[in-house]
Design a protein that fits this description.
The complex is a heterodimer of chains A (319) and B (219). Chain A has one domain. By secondary structure, chain A is mostly helical. In chain A, 70% of the residues lie in helices and 0% in strands. Chain B has 219 residues and is mainly α. Chain B has one domain. Chain B is globular and about 60 Å long. The chains are: A mainly alpha (319), B mainly alpha (219). Chains A and B meet through helix 7 and helix 11 of A and helix 1 and helix 4 of B.
């Protein structure tokens, strides 16, 4: 039993990492396709981002002369941290590997470690653009951070645990939690934070290369070839993981409570369906949305913060 | 209605009332704020209706319909009409910037919950526990009153305070007598009508609805 169980747990986590890695790139292509169709264009094929990454991996490795070890390390760390986070989050099953340590704080700060190193790498190349992009990205990160912490607190208040699999299990056992005010506020705040962290509209425009407005694109401007492929992969994985975390907090149905093969298949199918719906919805609303001015972002993040605070207060008051 | 659905429905209604109060500090365009106010009125009516259904109280259901009509429909329509005639007041110009207002609102929410702890300890029922939401909405309304300098934003602040008081009244007493509720609702309605008349006068005399211009004497 225990050996089979361990094998199931490891298998489930492996499936999760592969799903996040491959699914993230497909998700990117899918969201671009939705946008293109809504804007009246045909758009690139959904698998284009996979092809782009494959092409980049085959290219020559070029790095700035002045760059230190941070520059080549950042993409690797980004992918690695997201992969570790994908191992331990309950995306497909509520019993992923290392589920005991799968605290929401751990998951969130693993993701932040990757972004922080990427911001450092943006300045490492020594160009003006990279530094500007990094400073903007860090500003958004610093604004999103308090909101995110309070959001996690609000999520843990209702279930008396910040262990992510435990939260999902408690929600599955007691679906009334989903409609509780605390959870609704926390989820709304989480959505704003996720949009900010993954650099989507209205915080950052993922499809622009206009120097005045770009944030993330400016930060990774110096990357080329295999390094850029790793950054793209890491960012796509992060988007898929963040959306996966979100959908499993909002609608945890379909997540397997065991590690049997059937449960994993059902869990994978449910995860893909839920992320596709959420990603499509995000892309849909992005078409009708303008990017916020950079100096309006504190308002958005303060709104998320107050919303999360309301979630905490509601969680403490309404049992 | 089972007791747990009732409790969570009430909690949701009260939380939406407070959220709408915070949203009025968040949004800049008066048009959006008026929509938020309408949602708040609907949530308030929902709270009244669920208490009425739970207590089998027909009067409270009537009050809920009145609240819905007055605060969900009539008042927002009247304010929209004032704004339409005065393009300058389409955007609020708060004295305190939006992030600071929101953080202040967060502090006020905590203050309200801390201050009404003894009240909730007196009545730890499904309704009594939610009283701090009403107090918090009221405090946020006062904050909006203190930091907004346009006539329209001032009436929005007064409405927030009124909605907060109404929420506390519903939760604490399971509905005030119909005549009192009618009096309070009509009072607010009257205030909005007076605002409309005043706004017209102000625009004729001053050309704008900025209250700061009232502090100086003119020929």
């Amino acid at each position: 039993m225990s050996a089979a169980h361990a094998a199931g747990v490891v298998g489930a986590s492996a499936v999760q990492v592969i799903a996040v890695a491959a699914g993230g790139l497909v998700l990117l292509g899918f969201m671009r396709k939705v946008r293109a169709r809504l804007e009246g264009r045909v758009g690139a094929p959904i698998l284009q981002s996979l092809r782009d990454v494959r092409k980049l991996f085959r290219k020559e490795r070029i790095r700035p002369d002045v760059a230190t070890w941070i520059f080549p390390a950042a993409p690797v760390v980004l992918v690695a941290t997201v992969a570790v986070a994908a191992v331990m989050t309950p995306l497909i099953t509520t019993q992923p590997a290392m589920s005991g340590g799968s605290d929401l704080f751990v998951v969130v700060y693993l993701l932040l470690a990757g972004s922080t190193l990427l911001a450092l790498a943006g300045m490492d190349a020594g160009t003006a653009f990279g530094g500007m992009g990094s400073s903007r990205a860090v500003m958004i990160g610093a604004l999103a951070e308090p909101a995110l912490l309070v959001t996690i607190l609000a999520l843990s208040v209702t279930t008396h645990s910040s262990n992510f699999p435990a939260i999902v299990r408690a929600t599955l056992a007691n679906p009334g939690l989903i409609a509780s005010p605390a959870r609704l506020f926390a989820v709304a705040a989480l959505l704003i934070v996720i949009v900010a962290e993954s650099g989507r509209l209205p915080v950052d425009n993922p499809s622009t290369h206009l120097e005045l407005t770009m944030i993330h694109e400016a930060m990774i401007l110096e990357y080329a070839g295999p390094d850029l492929a790793m950054v793209t992969l890491g960012e796509a994985m992060r988007l898929a993981l963040l959306l996966g975390i979100f959908v499993n907090l909002v609608l945890p149905w379909g997540v397997a409570t065991s590690t049997t093969a059937l449960g994993l298949v059902v869990g994978l199918g449910a995860l893909v369906a839920k992320i596709a719906v959420l990603g499509g919805a995000l892309a849909f609303f992005e078409v009708f949305m303008a990017k916020l001015r950079l100096f309006r972002l504190p308002e958005l993040m303060a709104g998320a913060f107050v919303m999360a605070l309301l979630g905490v207060v509601s969680g403490l008051v309404v049992k | 209605m089972t007791s747990s659905t009732y409790a969570s429905l009430l909690g949701l209604g009260a939380a939406v009332v407070l959220l709408c109060a915070v949203m009025t500090l968040w949004r800049r365009s008066v048009g959006a704020i008026v929509k938020v106010l309408a949602v708040q009125g609907v949530a308030l009516a929902g709270v009244a209706l669920s208490i009425g259904i739970d207590h089998h109280d027909a009067t409270l259901a009537v009050v809920a319909v009145l609240v819905l009509a007055a605060k969900g429909v009539v008042v927002p329509t009247l304010i929209t009409r004032v704004v339409r005639h005065d393009p300058a007041s389409r955007e609020t110009q708060p004295l305190v910037n939006v992030p600071a207002s929101l953080v202040a609102a967060g502090a006020l929410i905590f203050l309200a919950f801390a201050a009404s702890r003894s009240v909730t300890a007196l009545a730890p029922t499904a309704t009594g526990r939610l009283i701090p939401y009403g107090v918090a909405a009221m405090l946020v309304g006062f904050f909006a009153l203190a930091t907004r300098r346009k006539a329209v934003s001032q009436i929005v602040g007064i409405l927030l305070v009124d909605n907060g008081i109404a929420l506390v009244a519903f939760l604490a007493t399971a509905g005030v007598p119909l005549i009192v509720e009618l009096g309070a609702s009509l009072d607010v309605l009257l205030a909005v009508v007076v605002l409309q008349v005043l706004a017209t006068q102000m625009r004729l005399r001053l050309g704008s609805l900025d209250l700061d211009q009232l502090s100086e004497l003119r020929d």
